[in-house]
Amino acid sequence: MDKVALVKAMESLKDALDDGDVETIEGAVADAVKLGLPQDVKDDVQEIRTLVDEYDFFTAADIAERVAQLPKTQKPDKTHKRMDDLSEKRVLVVDDTKANVDVLVETLRGSCKIGVALSGENALKAVERNKPDLILLDVLMPGIDGYEVCRRLKANPETAGIPVVFVTALEEAASRETGFKVGGADFLNKPFEAAEVKACVAKHLGSSG
């Protein structure tokens, strides 16, 4: 294993985590694997886990799983054409349930840049570090829930203009009324329909300037 090159690859991974783009992160992990990071060596995988634990975008288990799934000699293909003119737009997905995050990430992959936060607290930190163009925000989360996250974002002039789409399984009219009162722009229902998610995201990214 080329330790020097691997260290550089790990530094690139850290930069990718700061950027928060899913495809960039996966590409950096693929580079580390290509340079000699064995998929079955615990210590090297633990090094990735340690890095990821310092950031808000993915859980350690999530990155470890992605490392195991990525090929050793091939980076993800980024040459395909992306939908419309939204490829440089950034969407922050906020949900404390990994399965929901995975569905939204896979649905939107290739059409825009994607960041992920797994709690309300981490969502606010992620927005502060790298302001997104749109936020898909779970309502029911431990700690700071989606409504409170939205309130805080709308109270800050720097983030008040970011459209927030609540994602929820709640059907009551009162929950939607609360969402709109705190500044939400729209709702997406769980379980997700891919076509509905894409249409909603395109609509709000298109209007976000």
Describe it.
The protein is of the alpha/beta class. It contains nine helices and five strands; from the N terminus they run ααααβαβαβαβαβα. It has helices spanning 3-19, 22-34, 42-52, 60-69, 98-108, 120-129, 146-155, 173-181, 194-206, and strands at 90-94, 113-117, 134-138, 164-168, 186-189. A five-stranded parallel beta sheet has the order 2-1-3-4-5, with helices on both faces. β3, α7 (146-155) and β4 form a beta-alpha-beta unit. α1 (3-19) packs antiparallel against α2 (22-34), α3 (42-52) packs across α4 and α6 (120-129) runs parallel beside α7 (146-155). The protein is globular, with a radius of gyration of 18 Å. The N and C termini lie far apart (46 Å).
What is this structure, in a nutshell?
By secondary structure, the chain is α/β, with parallel strands linked by helices.
Q: In angstroms, what separates the terminal alpha carbons?
A: 46 Å
Report the helical percentage.
Answer: 40-55%
The helix-strand sequence is HHHHEHEHEHEHEH
Shape: globular
The Rg value, from CA coordinates, equals 18 Å
